[in-house]
Amino acid sequence: MRLFLGCPIPPDPARMLEAWASSAFPQNVARTVAAINLHVTLAFYGEVETEPAEAMIAKVTALRWNPKPVRTGVPRYFGRNAIGLDVEGLLDDPWPSELIELWRLQPQSERHRDPRPHVTVARLRPKAARPTLPTGPTLKFALAELVLFESRLSTEGSTYFPLARAGGATHHE
Fold first, then answer.
1. Distance between CA atoms of 143 and 100, rounded to whole angstroms?
2. pTM to 2 decimal places
3. CATH code for the domain of 23
4. What is the pLDDT of residues 112-125, one digit of tens each?
5. Residue 78 and which of 95, 115, 125, 133 are 20 to 30 A apart at CA?
6. Which helix (DSSP H) or strand (DSSP E) does residue 102 occupy?
7. How many separate domains does the chain show?
């Protein structure tokens, strides 16, 4: 299963980010990420076998999480086709050792990814030229949850399924 560690974006800022991305990038250039799927990516693990995934679930569940105030920053490209915004504030305070340990579980093959916390708001369509990125919105909000997600790919885009939430997190559906 494809796993990543992230923080869901609260509904109001998620809707604002989706609306901005929809207006900033024409449909023939990029596919906007639906508000329900917007999250701040902290670590991408790629394909993980069942046994290590179960250990990661236990580690996430045991981790204490307190809401973190953040703000969206500069728009940029992440990887080949992801258009996102930096998320500032998550690195202002030292991370607990348990969270660093989870971050370090990323396989070497995935460490080429930009390590900065970010939210992907759109993905370029195949063969689309990279447009100049417009100024993004500066939104302030709190990340109330830390979640280990499974990412299932389809032709319409990825769907994310929460596998574990850090202890102390406020649960939102």
1. 18
2. 0.89
3. 3.90.1140.10
4. 666 789 999 999 99
5. 95
6. helix 97-104
7. 1
